[in-house]
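Components:
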Amino acid sequence: MRSLLPSSVRPVAALTLAVVLRLLREGLVVRALAWPGLLTSLALVGTAAAWATWGSAPIIAVGSKELLAPLQSRGFSVELVENPEALVSDGSVIHAIWKEGEHWVLGVTWGGRTTLEAEAALREFAGDRWRLEIPPLEARPGNVDHEAALLAGVIGLLFTLYGVVMGAGTLFRDRGNGSLESELALPVPRWMHAGARLLALLLVLGPALVVSLLVVSALLTIDDLHLWMLTGTCAAVVGGAIGFALMARAVAAHGFSGPLSRALTLTMAAMALGWWQPALGRWLPLVSLGSFMAGTEPSALIVPGAMIAAALATFDFSRRECL
Amino acid sequence: MTPVETGARSGRRENHITIGWRRADRYTRAVLRTKDLARSFEDESRGRVEAVRGISLHVVGGEIYGLLGPNGAGKTTTLRMLATLLRPDRGSIEIDGIDARKEPVRARSRLAYVPAEAGLPERLSALETVTLFGEIQGIARPREHAAALLDRLGAARYTNSNCASLSTGMKRRVVLARALVHNPPLLLLDEPTDGLDVAGRREVLGLVQDLAAEGRAVVVSSHIMAEVESLCPRVGVMVEGRIIAEGTVKELLAVSDTRNLGDAFMALTTTAR
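Structure:
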C-alpha cells in the first residue's frame, strides 16, 4: 500500500493515518454514532407522548344536549355534564360551555387554536352576528418529513460541533504535551501538519455522519438524504477548520476554552445566518446547514467552499509558529 | 549511517580550530554553524522582549556542546531557531552544510530535535509513534527500523505499550528513538533529563554520549551544572539572550577563578548582569 503512494504524498498519508487512529481510539466518534439512534428514539417517544397527551380530540364539557351535535361535527369530543362551569373552574377540563341567561359562555383554562375553534363553533351554533374566521393551518412540507429533516439538521449540527471540538482539541492537546513541537521539526512543510489533521477529520466524521443519517433514515425516512450527508459533512469540515484555525491563532497561554468558545460562537452564528437568510446557504458551507433546516437546498458549490475553508486554515497555520 | 558515511555525504571536511576545547580528532566537520542569531517577541506585559541577542555557535560532529543558563536565558528559543521552528529576526544557521533559513525542510532532515516537554501522542503505541516518524522521514521498512531502534535504546519490552502508560524514563527513550529514526548528524536536546530520576538521568546521559561517539554533533541545553560538567566538553553560558562565556569547563573555572561549574556559573552570570 505504502509503495503505491508517491513519496510526496506519503508524509500526509502517514500523518493523517496517525490522527485518524488517535481519533478513533479516543472513542468520541464511536460515541457520536450512538447519538442519532438515541435522538431518533427520543423523538419517537416524545411524539408518542405528545400524541397521547394532546393528540386526541379535545374534550369540551357542556351543560346542554343541543351543543353535542354541532361540536362533535367540528371534531370535538363533547361530554355532557351537570355543571361545566365548576369543572373548568377546578381545572378538570380545559374547555367548558354553559348558558347564563340568554348568553352562552365559553370558559377556558388555556388558550390556543382549539379555544378559537371552540369559540367559532359556538358563535356559529348561536347564530351570532360576528363570526370568527380561523385560517386553515399552513400545509407542512410533507408530513413526518419535516420532523425527519429537522432531526437530520440536528445530527448535522451535532457533527459540526464535534468537528469544532476535534479541530481545536487535536491541536491544543498536541501543543500542550509537546508532541506538536516534535512533529513540526520533521522535514515536511508545515501545511502538511494542518492538512493531515483536517483530512483526518473528514475521514472520521464524514463516514460517521453518513452512518448516523442512514440509521435515522431507516426509522424516519429523510428526504434528500444525500444532500443532508453532503451538507452535514461540509459543515463538519468547516467547523473543524474554524476550531483548528482559531486554536492555531491563539497562543498557548490562552488555554483551550477561549479559542474553543470563539470557534463555537462563530460556527453557530454562521448556521443562524443560514436559518435567517436561507439564500446565503445555497453557496456557503456551514451556513448551508442552517438554510437547509429552514427549507432551502444547498448547491454543489458548498463542496469547493468547504475545501477553500480548509485550505485557508491550512495556509494560515503554515504562516504561524504555533508553539 | 556511520560517521564516515555522514562525512562522505556532505562532501566537506574542514579543520576547526578553537582554543581550549577537546578537539574531536575523527570528526572535525562543522555540523552546526550559526552567526549573530537573534530573536525577539512581543509580550503583552513587558512589550518587546529580546530573547536571543546575536548568538554564534560552531559545533562539529562528535562534539557535545552544552548550553548552560538560568530559566529565561533564551536556551529554548535558541534551540527552536536551530530546529527551524522559530524564524530568527537576523543571523544565519547552517546545518550540515544547508542554509536552514533558506531551506528549512531540507535542514530538518539533518537534525533531531527533542523539546523539553517532548510529549508522545496519546493512544499510539511506542512502535507506532517511532514508525510514523520513520515513515515521514522516508526510511525504508520504517516499522522494522523503529523496532530495532527501540530495542537498541532499551525499550523493546514496551514497543506495543500505549505511550500514555509509559514511565517518564521510558517516554524519554521513545522520544529519543523517534528523534533518531532517520539517523541525523545533529541532535538538539532541550533539558533532556528534565523530570527523570537519578537512574533515568544516568541512562539518558549515557545514551547521549554514545550518540556523540558515533559522530553526531549534540547541542544540549540545561540548567543542571553537574550534568553539563560531566557531559559536555565545551560549554556556552547564556544569560539574557547572550553567550557571555564559552569554553571547556576548566577554562570557565579558570576565567571565573572558581572550583566548580556552579560557582563559575554564578560568578559569570553575576558579572554579566
